Amino acid sequence: MRQISFDLDVLRTFTTGIDLGSFAKAADRLGRSTSAVSAQLKKLEEQAGAPIFRKAGRGLALTEAGHTLLGYARRLLELNDETASAVRGVELEGEVRLGLQEDFGEALLSSVLGRFMRAHPKVRIEVCVARSTDLRERVTMGRIDLALLWECVAPTLNGERVADLPLCWIGPVHNSGSWNLPADEQELATAAGAPVSLVLLDAPCLLRDMASNALDAAGIAWRHAFTSASLSALWAASAAGLGLTVRTPIGMPASLRIIDPQEAGLPRLPSIGLSLYRAQTIAGPAVNRLEELLLQAVQEAVKRVTMA
């Protein structure tokens, strides 16, 4: 049987189109014509020896073979890019100062920093885990090079909107605790006139304000059952049944679950923007490479939680 060597350039077009949700956008991102992208996708199906797309309404969806190919394509491209960075950037040196929300610490740092340090062992990385307000101030003052933060408004000139994520009511996997969610998830504690118990970060906190504003607008009474400066403490308190917390699904522990607002008698929460900010200086190659890896990891994390 003849061995097939997949074209990495074609695989990059394929994964980019899937990530952006449009192969027209992929053509624009990669600097190709739409006809060239179509030709690449046709070539990919020929190489795969099986259909990788099926019609879904007016658009296309992946077949089972397409989903399998996508997973392998990501792995091949990741190894290719890591190899290229290691060869070209073996002498890359310097320092990168990165700012992150606590939500992304465990979800992104191990994979991103592991890949980066294997390719660039001479670069020193300093990580600051802080709130959005603090991170925005630090990156504006040039005290950090990159900052990934939550915001509701449009990014300023040195920022880029990376994604919009749903805010969710989050509670324990098993119904327990003072807020006492009934088994049928109807009328969360408010049925008895009790206020909704909330587990939130201490002020100032954008997500805290969005949760309280949504409850106030719906005329639902609430109380602070637990407040902390630590996200891990919030996860633990909510898992223990002390109350509901409000976050995006990114980084949510297995001991917690998303509560359906309609079934629980709670207001729907708005989405929140995730933006990447850069210091207002010319970035060096080490900063640019870490930014590239960070954006890839964020896109993959967002895709996982939005498709779950």
Automatic annotation (TrEMBL):
According to the UniProt entry, its GO molecular function terms are:
DNA binding; DNA-binding transcription factor activity
Protein name from the UniProt record: Putative transcriptional regulator lrhA
Please provide the record's keywords in A-Z order: DNA-binding, Transcription, Transcription regulation
What is stated as this protein's family in its record? Belongs to the LysR transcriptional regulatory family.
Domain HTH lysR-type: start-end pairs: 6-63
Please verify whether the record's keywords include Transcription.
yes
Keyword Cytoplasm included in the entry's annotation: no
